[in-house]
Amino acid sequence: MSGGDIHPDGIPIGTGLQYWQTQFLSFHCLNRDCGRWVDMGLRRAVRLAGDPAVRVRAFGRRLRCAGCGHRGAHPMLSADCRSEHAREREGLLKVCLEE
What we know:
Layout: E1 23-29, E2 37-41, H1 42-49, H2 56-62, E3 73-79, H3 84-90, H4 94-97
Antiparallel strand pairs: 1-2, 1-3
């Protein structure tokens, strides 16, 4: 798949659901005066979107910032970069456990 094959609204939100233990979405408020960041687990994002086929950027446009009330957020896929041993020792990130 080349960059030209990707839909303008990104991938469906449920595409990476099998990686829910190590990946999550980070949303950045589009209001330049706010700049708030919020992390959201993949399972929670799919539940709030209502459908795993909803595209990530389209979902971000629907969100409203709890800090300033602005509608719209820029999504980024984030990952737990700790080693497998560290995840076993310390457990999964709290954000990944959200439902």
